[in-house]
Amino acid sequence: MATEENGPARPAADLVQFVDGRRPGIGVRSLAVDGQGRLARKADGTRLEFTFEFLGFLFAVRMESNDHSGHMRFHADLGNLPYSAESLAKRADALAIVAAAGRALGGRVQTTREQRILLFEEMRFEEPLTPVVLMSSTVRLLLEAQPFLELLAQVVEPPVAAGHANLQEN
Known about the structure:
- By secondary structure, the protein is an alpha+beta fold.
- The protein has one domain (about 45-170): Yope Regulator, Chain: A (2-Layer Sandwich), CATH 3.30.1460.
- It is about 40% helix and about 30% strand.
- It contains 4 helices and 7 strands; from the N terminus they run αβββββαββαα.
- It has helices spanning about 10-20, 90-105, 130-155, 160-170, and strands at about 30-35, 40, 45-55, 55-65, 70-80, 110, 115-125.
- The chain has a 5-stranded antiparallel sheet.
- Helix 2 packs antiparallel against helix 3 (about 130-155).
- The model is unreliable at about 20-25 and about 165-170 (pLDDT under 50).
């Protein structure tokens, strides 16, 4: 059984303790993710970058903030469009899902010339980024994209899931 002292609950407890004890006005620019994946204060710098997995898709986030404004950029690799030779039906379904997601999410889901499916989002704020802004913006994007990601995962193998499958085969 994991204890709060050394188990999986420790990073969550650290985050709760950090948020609970944070001074008013502390911004994301003063935060960093340490080697153990914990959120920690840093002395200087205005950039925070991290990745996370959601439904088998890998998301990357870059944030920059100063005392007056902030900028967040989300990027997700949603996999490759299936080739027609693999499955004409899966390719047609994937293209229909990407088109619907692109319309519903304001063009944020697109395919590249190399047949990669990508999701992008950029947000600008007229205030410093705080942990609350970071989390709420991330969750909002995921909730908006979730129905399309769930459908897409049925016809396109998510990159992270594909990586796990390759590791298990070896």
